[in-house]
Amino acid sequence: MPLCTESDMMRLIAHETNRARECLFMYYRPFGVRGVIAILSHRICGRPKELAVRCAGTRIPVHLRVRTSDISGYDQILLSQQYAFDLPFVPKIIVDAGANIGMASIYYARKYPGARIIAVEPEASKFAMLARNVNPYPNVVPIRAALWNRNGEVFVSAPTAVQSASDKVGFVVQEGGGVPVRALTMRTLMEDLQIDCIDILKVDIEGAEKEVFDRCSWMQNVRCLAIELHDRFKPGCSAAVTSATADFFSVQRGETTFYIHRSCVAPFGESVSFQQRTLAHPLWRL
Questions:
Q1: Which residues in the chain come in under a pLDDT of 50?
Q2: Rounded to 5°, angle at Cα 225 from 100 and 114
């Protein structure tokens, strides 16, 4: 084995220094000095394992696990409002597919207190935190399951080394290998819960959108879709969603693509270009 040269050592030190700086900033940005103290304490003595934090305007805390993606999810969704947009209607039914620990469900529950929110999450530890976080919100219904292209059973597993290196992917759903969990189609979910129309469908399912949206027959029952696509480690995700959303307008914001059914913006008329609509309508003032 070749000896580590001085230049190799310097590069390694620089790399680890940058990683430490990014980690500290990730905790400082949403929590200030409290966050920095928490992550340093956790690294030294293993505590605290969780943080209970409150967003402005609410006394209800959310619970976040230290050294997990919970922290970035809280920052992006509840603080930076990743899913913030205005609709030309008041949503009554919202499905949060890939609900993780419940940040998007909580965001929607606060913004639309009259809506019924279905939060679907397959991974056991995330689902436990999801159920805990949404417990104070009676309009949120947590369901442990994975959306798929068939009913039955699939498996939840940690990402591969390639996926972990190339993306911030979390647990993935696949046909074999991992922890078994109930699989169901969107059509089955809608039938079981007696849902005729989904006003907002939020989807972040780590590549399973390829299976869920491929040849789907239920998108005519969706008015607005907010989705993160994962072609970078499962080719075909965007193609499946694009095929299913032929009757939708779309706009990109960061890693999220928003789709709205043409019928929801029909009052603008076909004489107005889509670009003009996106600039004029409050829906697209993101």
A1: 1, 161-168, 268-286
A2: 75
Chain centre distance of CA 235: 19
Domains and CATH numbers, the chain: 1-79 (no CATH), 81-284 (3.40.50.150)
Q: What is the rounded CA–CA span in Å between residue 172 and residue 181?
A: 12
Angle (CA) 234-162-20 rounded to 5° is 120
Ramachandran angles phi, psi of 21, nearest 5°:
-65, -45
pLDDT the model gives residue 159 = 66
Is residue 54 exposed (0-12), middle (13-18) or buried (19+ Cβ within 10 Å)?
exposed
Strand order of the β-sheet with 116-120 is 140-143, 116-120, 93-97, 198-203, 222-228, 256-261, 248-253
Which pLDDT does position 21 carry in this prediction? 83
Position 264, amino acid: C
- Check residue 8 and give its pLDDT: 66
Instruction: With beta carbons less than 8 A apart as the criterion, state whether 83 and 226 touch.
Output: yes
State CA 150 to chain mean position distance.
22
184 DSSP β-pair partners: 147
d(CA 96, CA 100): 9
Residue 108: both structure tokens together = 């929607």
- Tokens of residue 106, six digits: 């909580």
Q: How would you classify residue 21: left for phi > 0, otherwise alpha for psi between -120 and 50, otherwise beta?
A: alpha
Q: Above pLDDT 70, what percent of the chain?
A: 85
Closest to 94 in 3D by CA, of 216, 102, 38: 102
Cα dist from 266 to 93, 229, 261, 280, whole Å:
21, 27, 9, 14
Strand bridging mode 152-157 / 93-97: unpaired
Residue 92 backbone dihedrals phi, psi, to 5 degrees:
-110, -30
